[in-house]
Amino acid sequence: MFSPHEIVKLFLLVSDPQLKPVRGGFSGAHVFQVQCSLGSFALRAWPPHSFSEARLGKLHRYLRFLNESGFPVPLPRKMIHGHQTFFSSDNRLWQLEPWLPGQSVTGQTISDPQLINGMRSLARMHIVSSGYRTDCGDPLFQCRSGSSPAVSFRRSVIRDWPASRVKLAWKSMRRAPQEFSQLCQPLLDGYSRMSAFVDRELEDMERVPVSIHPCWRDLWSEHVLFTGDEVTGFVDPGSAKADHVSSDLSRLLGSLFGDETSRWETALTAYEAVRPLDQNDRQLIRVMDRSSVLLSGLTWIDRWMKGAIAPPQLPAICERVRRIIPRMENL
Prior knowledge:
This protein is an alpha+beta fold. It has helices at residues 4-11, 53-68, 112-129, 149-160, 163-173, 178-206, 246-257, 261-272, 279-305, 314-329; strands at 18-22, 30-36, 39-45, 87-89, 92-98, 144-146, 210-215, 224-227, 230-234, 241-243.
């Protein structure tokens, strides 16, 4: 087993890198900020069994394509010896990438120029990604026309949460910490009330062929970095693969603006100045947003039931759940 310091030296010819642990989000990834004579980097260890080497290699190939197209994405470095962009140790795949400059914003702090530039940058990234070519027609990142994979996946989640499982979740919540338990109650109520309706919406959109190409797919507001008014980073691409642009737009705008319809429209207008959306695109964005609100809370409830939430994660999870509740009530 290699230490993080030793792994850094597999990628950089430096004598004494300084490592500082940083929060790796909810995925279970380990992330360190690395300072050394060559600059600032992020050392990332993906959660065990979250990626095969083949899957991670495909993601890195797509990031290289975006980087060479001029987009500020965290392109992993090659190891000093060989051409690998990751290293396996302690059941995790490790990579070293540049520490991109900038700060994320919220719906309350984002300026009009930031919003316009952010949406136009995302639109340009979608246009460029629609021309991405994979090896041997690999479907993971393959451009094509068809139904959105995210739509089919979300329908499968609803099928996996029948009334009997919701009832089991209610019982499990009685053993959860009080704050988390109380926050999850309106999410389970809302799911029971709206799941059939949202599933019908998803079923309708599943029949509609749309343009599929690589997207970020989990583009929260904290994943877009700004320096001043300019976008200087799209980060945390671990969920990226081929899907419809609604997977990015619904997640980003939902995390920024919730149910503020006018802010959504301002953002989509800025996006459409670069990449127009048709009626099906816009409908799918809304359906994806509603299904995200419906299902997001189940993610945390399911993790709790499986014992996959560490106590230090609970305050941040409660805060995210707290943001979902008003939107669930408005479905």
